[in-house]
Amino acid sequence: MFNTPIxxxxxxxxxxxxxxxxxxxxxxxxxxxxxxxxxxYVSLVNCNVRIPTFISDLTGxxxxxxxxxxxxxxxxxxxxxxxxxxxxxxxxxxxxxKFLQAESARLxxxxxxxxxxxxxxxxxRIFPGLASYKLTNLSSSLGINFNSRAHRAEADAEVAAxxxxxxxxxxxxxxxxxxxxPQVFIELNKLTAAKVPTFLQSKFAKI
Length: 207
Prior knowledge:
Elements (H helix, E strand, L loop, with lengths): L1 E12 L10 E11 L1 E9 L8 H7 L3 H5 L4 H12 L3 E4 L2 H14 L9 E3 H8 L8 H8 L10 H22 L8 H7 L6 H8 L4
């Protein structure tokens, strides 16, 4: 499948924007090699902030859980070491990356990941016309099951990783591919859905 490792990232947070003081509550990073998740880093994280009630209701992550979790000064450096220089992926990647950048900058650190794949944008281009591209709805449409509660970082990252593998297998079934360079996904992210068939036909022969 993929001839270069990809790290699928997912964060749970106290809100939508670190610029407004929102922080992390949980992190998950899963390394995909070939067509399998082979390694993972998962942790709750204590950023010394209050968890809004609606966030606890959505995620099941309570104030007590994060108060007892490792601090951001431990989790963020460990997370960055785990990611290393691999390609990074996330569902709605702009959301996760802005938190990764903000939390890293607080500690004077910078992520060394090579490139970024957004599985949300990718799904819109490979499977146009679906009713919803939210991870829970999209996974249901494609027959990908959650093994545990949605809106927890590890569960969401697992489903997003399976989604990326599913897209890779879809391309293998429809095009003559010996292996799939993730750079193709990065290029697809930049295209409109209408241009995707021509792009793929120019890159790979139809089976």
